[in-house]
Amino acid sequence: MGAQNIWNAMEVAEEARESCNFNIPSSSITIEISLPLPEMTPQIIKLCKDLFKKWSNLEDSRFSVETVSGGITNLLLKITVREEDGNTVFMTVRLYGPNTEYVIDRQRELLSIRYLSVAGFGAELFGVFGNGMVQSFINARTLEPSDMKKPNLAAEIARQLSRFHQVEIPGSKEPQLWNDIFKFLERASGLKFDEHEKQRRYETISFEEVRHAVNELKHLTDLLNAPVVYSHNDLLSGNLMLNDDEEKLYFIDFEYGSYSYRGYDIGNHFNEYAGFDCDYSLYPNKDAQYHFFRHYLKPDVPQEVSDKDLEALYVETDSYKLASHLYWALWALIQAKMSPIDFDYLGYFFLRYDEYKRQKAKSLSLVQSFLANPHTR
Ligand SMILES: Nc1ncnc2c1ncn2[C@@H]1O[C@H](COP(=O)(O)OP(=O)(O)OP(=O)(O)O)[C@@H](O)[C@H]1O
């Protein structure tokens, strides 16, 4: 994962276009992400004119550019274009953050965006350029962590996730979870920090122990033969948007999407109930999980889901939630070294790894007794 250079977006666009037969405008322009907005604005306008030829003669004053979010990973801008016929177009321009190619496979992302947007998910892709992409602006509010547990919203997220998991993305259907975790582990275990304090904290980590944890969990979860689906893999509140008037829920941000285990996507989502403070006591209880599973497994007739199917998905989700802790813990270590963002990524590693250790015994014994009981399978 992430082996390609982000600057090969043109090749990526070409490949996506060829394989999907979609016509995505592309531009070779790259935009320096660290520029202040007033200096960046003329370059963004130039980019829009280069991508969308119908605007090439439109006056610059008809474009306005504002910041939507500095995100943890990217810079997102809102572009408003007032066309001469009175029509107004709203778009977003996303600039990839520096070094994000170490944890994000842009080729995989771009291909999936195309197919997911055709299936009705996320923003529409309008164009790609050297270090980013242009998409439709979604008129909706971003959810808060506490929204996700509201029964109506949880049911809607489950229904949408069920549909999302049915989308077929061309290419290999091999689950990527463990490949990604092993790649992260390899990278994360060979880091060196310039700052003494960071290096000291990093050296307290036993990678032998982490490797053992990964192998043990892989071995056990493999025995579950969990269904493999196209997974979002980062379904946190910030990636869920809701238009309250239309009661329409949007999944956004497919940067981490890949074929993976359905229980992983759900367990990862449940871990996000912990919110920005990482309060894992907010992980949904069994009743709340069953509510979600019913709407996920049988969106039209949730009450008809069998106890056996509920229990199986409960065990699957509960074991893969551990994999989500390991994944994001290792991701954080790489970010601690690579990301220019001032965030305590090392601290985040310990938060996720410690939570894995806290949950491990209970979750592993649950899956072991499930596997040992032929009636549950
Ligand atoms: N197409 C869109 N239309 C309107 N708002 C959007 C759109 N895409 C993203 N946003 C808003 O910008 C925020 C950040 O977007 P996104 O999660 O894609 O960026 P990111 O840089 O990957 O952030 P992070 O790394 O924190 O997840 C979202 O939470 C949402 O509020």
Describe the structure.
The chain is α+β, with helices and mostly antiparallel strands and 377 residues long. It folds into 2 domains: 14-137, Phosphorylase Kinase, domain 1 (2-Layer Sandwich), CATH 3.30.200; 142-372, Alpha-Beta Complex (Aminoglycoside 3'-phosphotransferase, Chain: A, domain 2), CATH 3.90.1200.10. It is built from 11 helices and 10 strands. The chain has helices at 9-20, 37-51, 106-118, 151-164, 177-188, 196-203, 207-222, 262-271, 286-297, 307-338, 345-372; strands spanning 63-69, 75-82, 88-95, 125-129, 132-136, 141-142, 228-231, 240-243, 248-251, 258-261. The strands form 3 sheets. The protein has a 5-stranded antiparallel β-sheet with strand order 1-2-3-5-4, sandwiched between helices. Helix 7 packs antiparallel against helix 10, helix 8 packs across helix 10 and helix 9 packs across helix 10 (307-338). The two termini are 34 Å apart. The model is unreliable at 1-21 (pLDDT under 50). It binds adenosine-5'-triphosphate. The site of adenosine-5'-triphosphate has 18 residues, from strand 1. InterPro entries: Kinase-like_dom_sf (IPR011009).
Spans where pLDDT lies below 50 across 5 or more residues: 1-21
Please work out how many helical segments DSSP would assign: 11
Gyration radius, in Å: 22 Å
By CATH, the topology of the largest domain is: Aminoglycoside 3'-phosphotransferase, Chain: A, domain 2
SSE ordering: HHEEEHEEEHHHHEEEEHHHH
Give the overall shape, derived from the CA principal axes: globular
Bound molecules: adenosine-5'-triphosphate
Q: Percent helix among the residues? A: 40-55%
Q: Order of strands across the biggest sheet? A: 1-2-3-5-4
End-to-end CA span:
34 Å
Helix/strand class: alpha+beta
CATH domain class name of the largest domain: Alpha Beta
Could you describe the largest sheet, including whether it forms a barrel?
5 strands, antiparallel
